[in-house]
Amino acid sequence: MVRYKAIIAYDGTNFSGFQSQINGRTVQDEIEKTLSKIANQTIKINGSGRTDAGVHALGQVIDFAWPFEQSLEKLRFALDTQTPGDIAVKQVELVPDSFHSRYLAKEKTYEFRVDIGKPRSPFRRFYTSYYPYELDLEKIKRALPDFLGTHDFTSFCSGKSAVKNKTRTIYEADLVISESGDELLFTFRGDGFLYNMIRIIVGTLLKIGNGNIRHDAIPQIIAARDRDAAGPTAHPEGLYLKEVKYE
Amino acid sequence: MVRYKAIIAYDGTNFSGFQSQINGRTVQDEIEKTLSKIANQTIKINGSGRTDAGVHALGQVIDFAWPFEQSLEKLRFALDTQTPGDIAVKQVELVPDSFHSRYLAKEKTYEFRVDIGKPRSPFRRFYTSYYPYELDLEKIKRALPDFLGTHDFTSFCSGKSAVKNKTRTIYEADLVISESGDELLFTFRGDGFLYNMIRIIVGTLLKIGNGNIRHDAIPQIIAARDRDAAGPTAHPEGLYLKEVKYE
User: Could you tell me the keywords of this UniProt record (chains A, B) (predicted)?
Assistant: First the structure.
């Protein structure tokens, strides 16, 4: 047996999320079904982490044991073309047996896209979150650096999370406005993110831009360690897992 | 009664085309249904032209008679928000009673997008045509100017068309490659286009890029006045009606 790592992209619109579950179509199930068919035996995969229903990936990482060593491009092509059209397989590489997509992940980058155009673009309705209200982008830009560094992010974590240690380090928190002026692109890079963390951060930043939360309130919201202190959870359609890095 | 003109965009993926037909969901039916509900009486629309199933619009133009003059932005907002999410209403304006979207159109611009990335992007599968084969873009660029000017475009018209006069004038035929290098954007502007004309032009240009048709063959193909002389009809997903101009 050898172990392969693969970088995959998927359109999350028609998935109930990445991870296998009793009901619903999942990315993991589709990939395991295809790999098992190619290998003619049951293949199970690890992923770098879950993504929720509607959330997309540009660079999700998976790994799996494989019965024999083979051409990387042949395996990538077979997996890419035999999985449904909403999954793409960008790269396959051989990794040591000890590799694990989730346990060994050192850094993750997420993007969050917000459509602020009027009217809402019909082409981006599944690929951005729509925000039709007034936004002062300068206020959002002033608030972003307050997320940088190591903090207990309990206030920015879904109450449904069972994780105990809620301390995470954010290296990058950035906002770029599209040339056309009708789309916001947030980028967050850190050593890991809690359940719904990016979506709650963006939901809070949009409230800051709209004037409902003060632009200098982030330090107090973090210090509160209380989910109710932060803003709402932004919609999943805007969220993309962009990249996962390993040592 | 007054007459309004509206500029609309739509994602053609889940439509059987623009024009009403006996079976299938159409853009015209959805807009007429919404307008009739708002006006509380039957409203019928004209469109600048049909688009086929799967074809998109960034700037389709429609017009309709309306029982009373009212706020343009209120009407635009009502129509935009009450039509389904795959239709957007960008602009509404008052026009003379004599206005007609189809009869008075002077110039149309279409875009055609081709995904040439490896692998195919899952996010663009409904919004580009995919071409996975080798392409010499210089050959395509050399062929493009041969479409300019006034020609009988019978060779680039579907055999199903009932139109007799197949002479059209093309003012612009252009190709731009995306920054990422994985998408082609064709633009065609002319006084009008025949049924499937852009799709047959693009299908022929891709064959030229792939070396199956000579880059200098366009004049002969036009002169043949024979649909079989041109290349195949490219897929509808890459086609966008971008703009319609009036005097």
Answer: Isomerase, tRNA processing
